[in-house]
Automatic annotation (TrEMBL):
Origin: domain of life: Bacteria
High-level lineage: Bacteria, Pseudomonadati, Pseudomonadota, Betaproteobacteria, Nitrosomonadales
Name of the protein described by the UniProt record: Phosphatase NudJ
GO molecular function per UniProt: hydrolase activity
Subunit structure: Monomer.
Known cofactor(s): Mg(2+)
Name of the gene: nudJ
């Protein structure tokens, strides 16, 4: 059997001191996450980030930079995630758009609110991405090559 990590993307969006998150139903209960999901066959990392943000929040996401690449092994499951987190902006909210299955709602939270709800995060990557964003970490999109 060939081992493969789960490749995921996440949209990191901050507006006026608040971060865009989603509240979602998971096998572990209701959790908070950035708009995020798996890369589908045939799409680029950027296309996946844009798609996932629209499907989970009803906003159009425009990636502006790469926040970072995150490797995380779930401590209770035999799953490793490789997350590409993109910083960007959102617009064109379509309030009538149905959100993905399992997504309860999109919400905006301050960094302190994100920190205070750490026990409800889908993974440690949620807070790590917020802290890296606040520290000013970012890389140009051209560090990623799609062939």
């Amino acid at each position: 059997m060939i081992w493969k990590p789960h490749t995921t993307v996440a949209a990191i969006v901050e507006q006026q001191g608040r971060f865009l998150l989603v509240e979602e139903e998971t096998a572990d209960g209701i959790r908070l996450n950035q708009p995020a999901g798996h890369v589908e066959n045939g799409e680029s990392l950027l296309e996946a980030a844009v798609r996932e943000a629209r499907e989970e929040t009803a906003y159009r996401f425009t990636p502006q930079s790469l926040l970072g690449i995150y490797h995380w092994r779930h401590p209770l499951k035999d799953i490793t995630y490789l997350r590409f987190a993109f910083i960007g902006q959102v617009d064109d909210h379509q309030a009538d758009l149905a959100l993905d299955d399992g997504i309860i709602r999109a919400l905006w939270m301050t960094a302190d609110e994100v920190r205070a709800t750490q026990a409800q995060h889908r993974s440690p990557q949620v807070l790590t991405c917020v802290e890296h964003y606040l520290a000013g970490q970012h890389f140009p999109l051209n560090v990623i090559t799609h062939l």
